[in-house]
């Protein structure tokens, strides 16, 4: 279920909540809705990852025999049941907030299954498919105030671009990759950083945003440059792992950009937890 990754999906939700402005609206904080949406994304991500292993069970027997299904730790049937329960729970929990949230959760689940079954095998639509999952996840957090989706939906393009680049890079983590993909990833990373910095500048929050954007930039580019220099599986895997975990800092930058400074620090505090979990469980 990749616990370290699940933490990053919760960070996406908190970033969406920050963008919605609900925390600075002057009304009481909707703690129950926040809990529903955070639990929803945890279930959706966990379920999606379980189905990733379900659909890859035969391939993992060859490439990654240490994984849960090929190693015999869990049967294919029980893994399928677990993944299904998690996805259904994710949709139901989101629907408790609103029908709009439930629909967005459904989209996340559908696109996760599409990626696991078909998308991952396509060099362009696969990364785009995975990016859409994260984009919808940010919108799931934003849906805590459904009306805000109409004016801020376009912000989901940023995580789509970012996850597109990570997913494209990850294709070389087993057998090694091509430097052209890594250079493209570096270019897309730069677009993401500049886009967030632009919104922070427009909202007069650039200096606060840099508090998270600078370490974010360092965390993603250091292993990526190493992979560009030597594009072997180990280095590419390290770049992918750093890219996934660094999402937390990107989400913190989103939060402070929309004047939710305290929430930004709360999101950033999830980084040590995710890094600790990444040492115990696989990230990629």
From TrEMBL:
KW Metal-binding (keyword) present: no
Regions that span the bilayer: 6-24, 31-51, 85-115, 127-145, 151-170, 182-201, 207-225, 262-282
InterPro entries to which the protein is assigned, alphabetical: Prenyltransferase_related, UbiA_prenyltransferase, UbiA_sf
Keywords: Cell membrane, Membrane, Transferase, Transmembrane, Transmembrane helix
Highest classification ranks of the organism: Bacteria, Pseudomonadati, Bacteroidota, Sphingobacteriia, Sphingobacteriales
Name of protein: Polyprenyltransferase
GO terms, molecular function: transferase activity, transferring alkyl or aryl (other than methyl) groups
Compartments (UniProt record): Membrane
Organism: Pedobacter ginsenosidimutans
GO terms for cellular component: membrane
Listed Pfam families: UbiA
Record flagged with keyword Iron-sulfur: no
Membrane topology: Multi-pass membrane protein
